[in-house]
Amino acid sequence: MKQATTTTRIVPDEKGRFGAFGGKFVPETLMNALTELEAAFEEATQDPAFCGELNHLLSEYAGRPTPLTYAERLTEELGGARIYLKREDLNHTGAHKLNNALGQGLLAKRMGKTSIIAETGAGQHGVASATVAAKLGLSCKVFMGEEDIRRQSLNVFRMKLLGAEVIPAVSGSRTLKDATNEAIRYWVSNVEETFYVIGSVVGPHPYPYIVREFQKIIGEETRAQILKMLGRLPDEVIACVGGGSNAIGMFYPFISDEAVALRGVEAAGQGVDTDKHAATLSLGRPGVIHGSLTYLLQDEHGQVQEAHSISAGLDYPGVGPEHAYLKDSGRVTYTSVTDAEALEAVQLLCRTEGIIPALESAHAIAEAIKRAPQMSKEEILVICLSGRGDKDVLTIQDALEQTAEGGEQ
Amino acid sequence: MTAAVNRIDRLFEDRSRKRFIPFITVGDPTLEATYQLAQAMVEAGADLIELGIPYSDPLADGPTIQRASQRALANNISIIDALQLVKRLRDSGMEASLVLFSYFNPVLQYGVERFFADLATYGADGVVIPDLPIEENGPVVEAAKKNGIHVISLVAPTSESRIQTIGEQATGFLYCVSSLGVTGARASLREDLSDFLSRVKASTKVPTAVGFGISTPEQVKAVAPHTDGVIVGSAIVLEIERHEEQLRDPAQSEEAVAKIKTFVQQLASALQ
User: What positions does the domain Tryptophan synthase beta chain-like PALP occupy (chain A) (predicted)?
Assistant: First the structure.
C-alpha cells in the first residue's frame, strides 16, 4: 500500500460514518479495542517500514500485481463491450481476501497480539487468515457456520492443514452471519490478547475503513493497468457484493472518475420474488448488524432474516456500510443475479476463457453477460474476478446434476 | 407523566440497602410464565426486574440467554408484547422498577421516539441497550429524557479512560460488567473487580449495579460490598430452562414458579 500522508478521505468521518451509515454499535467491552485499533492503523500506515513490509509480502508472497486479462473469446461470444478480467483468482490462496488478511495480520503483530481470530463464509477469508497466521507465526481460530463447513469441506481442510483451528458456529442459519456472531462473542471474551481479522468491509468502525484501505490495491492496479494497455479508463466496472470487500477495493479508486459506471452485483438466490435471496441492497432496509448501521434483510420487528445463495460467500443479510452510502448517493448501481444465472456464467467463462471462477465472482460475470451486449464494441468493461472456483466444483457439480434431472422430468 | 419521579431513582434513594436485580426473557417459555415469574421474583426480594426482548442475533449474550431468546422468538415475541406485559404487571399493582433489555435494531425498527413514548405510557422505567455505546446514543438519550425514562449505560473492565465520561453521563444506575465476555454463569469472578468498581463509583453520582457471570449466593455476597445492586440473569434463565415443560403446563406451572422463586430468594437474601 502507499504510505498514508495527511488524511484526505471524505468517508468515513471521524465517527466512522459513511453518510448515515456505519458507526460503532457494539458492546462497551469492545469500544476501547476499536479505538486502539484505529490509532494503531493510522500510525502504521504512516510508517514507511510497515508499508514497505506489506508491499514486500504483497509482491513476493501473494504474487501481486495480479494480471488484467483481456477476455477475447468471451468478448466475441457476447458481441459487445471489450471485457477485461482483474485476476484476483491468481492472488495467493485463490482470492482477493489475502490482501486484507496480510494487512491486518501485520497490524496484529505490530500491536503485540499473539493470536488472531476470523470469521468465514465460503472459507476464502478463513484460508487467507490461516495462511497469514502461519506466515507471521500467530495462532489462528476461524469461526465458520456448520452449514458452510458442510458446503466448503475443501477449504475447511485447507485451514486445518495451515494450522488453524476451525470452530463451528451452530446457532441461527449456521452460515456467515452466525460465524460472525460467534467471532465477536469470542473477541469480547478475549479482547485483551486477541486481534479480530474481519474479512469484509463490514463490522464496527474502523473495520469497514481498514478493509477498504487494504483492498483498494485491486482498483489502483486495475486503473494503472488499463491506462497502460489502452490509454483510457474503462466505461464500466462490475464486481460482486456479499459484504462487499472486493467491490469496494475495485470501486474506490474509480469513485471520482465520474465517467466510469460502477455496478455491484448481489446474490438473488432463487429469485428476488422468493424469500430465498441475499439481495440486501435491493430489498433490505436500514438496520444494525454486527456493529454497523447499513442495509439489512430483516422482518418488521427488526429480527435479522436468513440470506440464501448458492455462493457461501454472498449469503450475508447485511452489507458493508460504504455500499449503503454509495447506493443512496447513486454513485454505484446495485443489481442482482440468481443462482441459475451464476451457474450459467461459470460454464460460459470455463468454456470461453479456460478459467473456473468462484461462485461469488460468477455473479459479476453473469451481470456482464447481460451488460456487454448492450454496450458498443468500442466500450470497455472490467470485471473483478475475485476468486477461483476450485473450492466450488462439488457444489457446481451437484447443482448442474440437479438441473439436468429437473430438466428431464 | 414526566413529572412523576422515576421508580429507579426512588428505589436507590436509600443506598444503605443493596438491591437485587433479576433478568428474564419475555415469553420464555410463554408470556404467561413471564408474568407469573415476575410476580414471584418481586415476592422473593427483587427490587428491579430486567425484561429481555428476544433478538435473532444477541451478540452480547452467551448460550443460555441465546436459547431463551430462541424459545421466545418461537412465540413471536416482540417489543409490543413486552410493553403489554409491563402494563399487565402495573395493573396488578406491581411497584418494582421495570427495565427493558433490548438490542438496538428492534428499537430502531419500532421507532426511537415511539419506543420511549410507549415505555412511559405502559409503565416501564428504563432500558438497557447493550450494543449502543455512548458515542451512538445521542438521539436515544434525548427521546428517553423527554419521556422520563432512564437509558442505563454499561461500563466494562476494558472501558479504562472511558469510565469517567460514562460515569458522568449515567442516569438511573450504572450497569457494571463484572467480567469480559458475554452473559453467562462463571465459576469465579475477576480478581481486579473491586478496583474496577471503586473506579466506577468515583466517576459517577448514580448508583451502580454489577452483572455478567454472577450465578451463586456466594458470588452475590462477595460482590455486594462494592456495589448498590447485583444483577443475575443466566443463572435464573437456566432454572427457567430446567422447568420449561412444567412452566408450559398450566397444571404444573405453579409448582415450577415456586421452585424458581426459592432459587431467586436464595440469591436475593445473600445481599443483605
Answer: 62-386
